[in-house]
């Protein structure tokens, strides 16, 4: 069975924790481990923060859209903005690369996403926005404590 949810909110930093908790609550129905849930919350936080800080240049304008799908133990989370887009995706994916050093950004967002999820796809067009699609299979066949 496939289950899905959609969430749209203003691109302001105060909404990042709301997005993280909402997606985590949705994914909880798959009974993820605490580590899996923490990883999903972290990647949502990174992707949403990228939309706010980079996509909309921390202007408070625009919306962030999240779609999450659950099917056969696989979580797919899509985070989208209609912001400025990414000029050079390969460069942006490099650990420690940031276009906002004045904001003390670590440049590890995409690295974290790629390490915590099974697959990460970045679709972007300058001046039109960015979509990040992330998938993760939730562990199955866990040993039952007796």
TrEMBL record:
It comes from the Bacteria. The keyword Nucleotide-binding applies. Its EC number is 2.7.11.1. It catalyses: L-threonyl-[protein] + ATP = O-phospho-L-threonyl-[protein] + ADP + H(+); L-seryl-[protein] + ATP = O-phospho-L-seryl-[protein] + ADP + H(+). Signal peptide: none annotated. Residues 35-140 form the Histidine kinase/HSP90-like ATPase domain. NCBIfam families: spIIAB. Belongs to the anti-sigma-factor family. Binds to sigma F and blocks its ability to form an RNA polymerase holoenzyme (E-sigma F). Phosphorylates SpoIIAA on a serine residue. This phosphorylation may enable SpoIIAA to act as an anti-anti-sigma factor that counteracts SpoIIAB and thus releases sigma F from inhibition. GO terms for molecular function: protein serine/threonine kinase activity. PANTHER family: ANTI-SIGMA-F FACTOR RSBW, ANTI-SIGMA-F FACTOR RSBW-RELATED. Keywords: ATP-binding, Kinase, Nucleotide-binding, Serine/threonine-protein kinase, Sporulation, Transferase. InterPro entries: Anti-sigma-factor_SerPK, Anti-sigma_F, HATPase_C_sf, HATPase_dom. HAMAP family: Anti_sigma_F. The gene is spoIIAB. It holds the Pfam family HATPase_c_2. This is Anti-sigma F factor.
